[in-house]
Structures are given as structure tokens and as C-alpha cells.
Write a structure and sequence with these properties.
Shape: globular
Strand content: 15-25%
Number of strands: 4
Structural class: alpha/beta
Helix content: 25-40%
Strand order of the largest sheet: 1-2-3-4
Radius of gyration: 20 Å
Largest sheet: 4 strands, parallel
Length: 128
């Protein structure tokens, strides 16, 4: 006689952080709701990190900077942190200009192969 294994999902992903998708237009009135969403995601996350998808925020401005600063503060108060995904050069430059440092997910540059991909080496190529 064989016994069945436990019911439910066979594996639970405890490594991948949840994602909070942020979209524009950004206004101060929406900040408390987004902070509450972040707190809920952090409470459920085992990683202590929430990825904030910022590509949909629209043109970067001080309202977006304020939102991200408040989300980071909310995350820190909850014992976690946020990581930005999809932050374009303009948003990264604006955050740098105001002195805010965020962890960002690395994105492959145009001429750089994605991680884990090795370039082929032709025989006779000099080492380099």
C-alpha cells in the first residue's frame, strides 16, 4: 500500500520577490494607497523585497521621485526594501540628481548579451 504525498502545490517560490506595478499619472492623492499595497506585499513576501515596476510611470518628474521616496521609507519602516525595474535613464538621472539611491534590476544593454549567454570564440582569435 502506498501513501499519497501532501496535497497542495509541490513547490512554493520563496525566492522571487513580489512585484508592485506603478503606472502614471502620479499624484500625491494616490501615494497612501500605493504605500498600503507595498506594506501588504512586504507582509506576504518572504524575501523582504518588493520589486517596483516603474516603466509605466510616464515621464519622470518630482511627483514620481516623491512617490518612490515614500515607498522606500514605507518599506524600510516595515523591515524591507524596494528594487526598481524598468527605470529608464531619465528617471535614474533624476533620482541621482536629488540624491536618492535605489537598487535597480540590471537590464541588458543594447550591445551586451543577456546574463548567462556566452559569446562564441572563433579558433585563431587572440585571447582577450
Amino acid at each position: 500500500m502506498s501513501s499519497a504525498g501532501p496535497r497542495g502545490p509541490s513547490s512554493v517560490d520563496t525566492e522571487t520577490p513580489p512585484v508592485l506595478v506603478l503606472s502614471g499619472p502620479v499624484s500625491p492623492a494616490g501615494t497612501p494607497r500605493r504605500c498600503a499595497e507595498l506594506r501588504a506585499l512586504l507582509a506576504a513576501a518572504r524575501t523582504g523585497v518588493v520589486v517596483c515596476e516603474v516603466a509605466g510611470l510616464g515621464p519622470p518628474g518630482l511627483a514620481a521621485v516623491d512617490l518612490l521616496a515614500r515607498l522606500e521609507l514605507t518599506a524600510r519602516r516595515a523591515g524591507g526594501r524596494i528594487r526598481l525595474r524598468g527605470a529608464g535613464p531619465a528617471l535614474r538621472g533624476l533620482l541621482d540628481l536629488v540624491g536618492l539611491r535605489f537598487e535597480t534590476e540590471r537590464q541588458a544593454e543594447q550591445r551586451e548579451p543577456p546574463g548567462g549567454v556566452q559569446e562564441a570564440v572563433e579558433t585563431g582569435d587572440p585571447p582577450g
